[in-house]
């Protein structure tokens, strides 16, 4: 599904000028039809899924209990 620049800005919760700048800088892939840019929304789904997976992994890591201290002889 393709979105206009305005729809993309609303979807990403960022200003329209920033979306346009990202398109010019090729950080967001877009198609130019001679008048307007159109952005494929599928490119954001993978990124958003990866961000959610990383958040989940960080939460799991934070919630992992610290193992009991093993008895280590002091060699000093």
Summary keywords:
single chain; 76 residues; alpha+beta; Molybdopterin biosynthesis moea protein, domain 2; 3-stranded antiparallel β-sheet; 3 helices; 3 strands; rod-shaped; DNA-binding protein; SinI_DNA-bd; DNA-binding; DNA binding
3D structure, described in words:
The protein is α+β, with helices and mostly antiparallel strands and 76 residues long. The chain has one domain: Molybdopterin biosynthesis moea protein, domain 2 (Alpha-Beta Complex). Helix content is 51%, strand content 13%. It has three helices and three strands, in the order βααββα. The protein has a three-stranded antiparallel beta sheet with strand order 1-3-2. Helix 1 crosses helix 2. The longest helix has 22 residues. It is rod-shaped. The N and C termini lie far apart (67 Å). The model has no long low-confidence stretch (mean pLDDT 88).
Number of distinct beta strands: 3
- Secondary-structure-based class equals alpha+beta
- The H-and-E topology, N to C, reads as EHHEEH
Rg (C-alpha, Å): 22 Å
Give the % helix.
40-55%
The biggest sheet, with number of strands, parallel, antiparallel or mixed sense and barrel status, is: 3 strands, antiparallel
């Amino acid at each position: 599904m393709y979105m206009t620049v305005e729809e993309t800005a609303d979807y990403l919760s960022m200003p329209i000028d920033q979306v346009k700048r990202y398109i010019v800088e090729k950080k967001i892939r877009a198609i130019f039809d001679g008048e307007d840019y159109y952005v494929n929304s599928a490119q954001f789904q993978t990124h958003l899924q990866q961000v959610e997976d990383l958040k989940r992994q960080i939460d799991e890591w934070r919630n992992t209990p610290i193992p009991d201290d093993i008895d280590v002889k002091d060699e000093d």
